[in-house]
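Sample entry (328 residues):
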Amino acid sequence: MTNISSRRTVLAALVVVTGAALSGCAADGSASAKAQGGGAGTTKITIGVLPILDVAPLYLGVQKGIFAKHGLDASIKPAQGGAAMVPAILSDEMQFGFSNVVSLLTAREKGLPIVAAAAGSSSTGEPDKDINAILVAKNSPLRTAKDLEGRKMAINALNNIGDTTITTAVKKAGGDPAKVKFVEVPFPDMPAQLAAGTVDAVWESEPFRTQILDAGGRILFNNLTETYPNLQIAQWFTSERLKKEKPDVVARFTAAMNESMTYASGHSDEVRASLGSFTKISSGVASRLVLPKWPTQLDKLSTTAIGEASRNRGTLATAPDVAGLLGG
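Predicted structure, serialized as tokens:
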């Protein structure tokens, strides 16, 4: 942004796109959050994260000295969601953040100058053993995605990756997505509502996916694999300005993140042991969770698939800006 008017335009657009799609807490605006040169040739960066298991590679990477090896003094700033990450990154209070792909494409459509910096987390590609799924109670009569017609389907946020992928699956199964009654329910509250019969099905993520299965629930279908075999759920992102003005910082972040994800992929025991330090997942549950895949490449085909599904759903009004998000 080069003038006050354009900054106001971006902030106005931000109000529209954030909320359920990119919910979160505010940045603290401290000087330590600015990207700047540190001692011995290091660069200080602040990275916004969600308190979910998908970001485990970042914590391991910092702990194992991978970021330091790449000349980065990384501070991790937890948030409840991604909303505050976007303005914080655009104002350089944070340099990098983590968000699902639908939210990032929505931000691009609203004119917000953000760009992907590294792959985040992906589906395992195994419908019965994935990081999340559509689940129903033990005695539910529902058997296919088509059976969601006329039923209450709980998702964590409306007009985002959940209803986008579920809509895709229902349509593939020959059903009418318009007849599905989507209701917004926080992930932690879904098991109780499913057990009480308040909703007919839930789109649940770990560790609550395992909790429902432990209680006798079952998987109805996997909305991620129905949309794309190995759907890239989330990506690490930054601002176009940082990528243009400090390409070396972005390149070092990408290299450090890729090395960290490779390490996490090969050390699942360490991933599970680390979860209690930044989530509320107990060690007993952590040992049984399904972990996501952590690829080291931004997946253009997957991003395009989820983008097109978002447009079909109406979450996006125009063709998804995949090239803009992925940097060309």
